[in-house]
């Protein structure tokens, strides 16, 4: 119908204009995200702050969520999963205490955002994702954005990545009911496992491997999606399929 043609013209003009306006906006929005959501809540590590300023978070969320990419919360990425709140990504990265060249393992690639932040620190990143579609999408996004320092694969992170161990840090972004023992074994001496632990009530923990044992530190309560796969068989406690899938960290 003739009037449909007329309607499409303003839509096209709007799309082009808002597209070009958005670029500068995103840099500004990211700057605001870092200063208002992250620095003010106490994240100080300059390497982490610089990485959070650089990674284009909007590239890691589905098109429908893009306008919300720099907001202070988690967002759905499909398959019942979420990209974590920016502040939580920053805290977990800071807790990992990585230096350029360190080797880090991430369990739960999801969108690939946390992996990109770890790569911006200069770390050598290994990342495992259980859901095949997310693993494929994240690998594609990371490649498109030039994050060559990330090796991502599909699989169950329960058993870690023995071939690439030991790690300076392991960052887990899905919550198991208890700490998977194989992950602790893959830490270097002095290495740190940053992990949300629990079912409905979870806490963020750091397990540091010392010369003679593991030291555990509790950070604060968090809400992540549950870890799936082998952990559910071995623990029997796994996760309840009806649980909300928002990793909401209250602070
Ligand atoms: N780090 C992600 C957040 C992902 S949410 C990001 O930056 O976007 C947690 C992810 O862990 C989900 O994608 C979920 O599918 C994945 N996951 C759950 N159990 C897992 C397991 N056993 N091994 C690997 N990934 C797992």
Structure characteristics:
251 residues, alpha/beta, Rossmann fold, seven-stranded mixed sheet, globular, disordered C terminus
Structure description:
- The chain has a single domain (2-250), classed as Rossmann fold (3-Layer(aba) Sandwich).
- The protein contains 7 helices and 9 strands.
- The chain has helices spanning 2-39, 46-54, 86-96, 113-120, 132-144, 181-185, 230-235, and strands at residues 75-78, 81-83, 103-107, 124-129, 150-154, 167-172, 187-198, 202-210, 213-222.
- It has a 7-stranded mixed β-sheet with strand order 5-4-3-6-7-8-9. Strands 1-2 form a two-stranded antiparallel sheet.
- It is globular and about 50 Å long.
- The model is unreliable at 9-21 and 236-251 (pLDDT under 50).
- Bound molecules: S-adenosyl-L-homocysteine.
- S-adenosyl-L-homocysteine (SAH) binds at residues 81-84, 107-108, 110-111, 113-114, 128-131, 134, 156-158, 173-174, 225, 227-229.
Fold-level CATH name? Rossmann fold
- Separate helix tally: 7
Structural class based on helices, strands and sheet pairing? alpha/beta
The domain count comes to 1
- Report how far the terminal alpha carbons are from each other: 54 Å
| Strand order in the largest sheet | 5-4-3-6-7-8-9
């Amino acid at each position: 119908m003739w009037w449909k043609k007329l309607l499409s013209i303003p839509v096209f003009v709007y799309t082009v204009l808002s597209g070009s306006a958005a670029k500068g906006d995103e840099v500004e929005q990211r700057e605001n995200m870092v200063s208002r959501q992250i620095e003010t809540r106490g994240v100080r590590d300059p390497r982490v702050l610089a990485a959070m300023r650089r990674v284009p978070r909007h590239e890691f969320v589905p098109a429908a969520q893009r306008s919300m990419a720099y907001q202070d919360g988690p967002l759905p990425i499909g398959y019942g999963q979420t990209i974590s709140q920016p502040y939580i990504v920053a805290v977990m990265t800071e807790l990992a205490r990585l230096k350029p060249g360190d080797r880090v393992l991430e369990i739960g690639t999801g969108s690939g955002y946390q992996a990109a932040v770890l790569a911006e620190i200069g770390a050598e990143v290994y990342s495992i994702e259980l859901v095949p579609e997310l693993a494929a999408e994240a690998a594609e996004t990371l490649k498109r954005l030039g994050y060559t320092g990330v090796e991502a694969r599909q699989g169950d992170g329960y058993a870690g990545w023995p071939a690439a161990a030991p790690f300076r840090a392991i960052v887990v972004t899905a919550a198991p009911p208890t700490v998977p023992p194989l992950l602790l074994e893959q830490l270097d001496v002095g290495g740190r496992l940053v992990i949300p632990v629990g079912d409905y009530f979870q806490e963020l923990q750091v397990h540091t491997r010392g010369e003679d044992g593991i030291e555990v530190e509790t950070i604060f309560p968090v809400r992540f999606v549950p870890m799936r796969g082998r952990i559910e068989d071995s623990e029997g406690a796994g996760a309840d399929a009806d649980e909300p899938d928002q990793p909401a960290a209250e602070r």
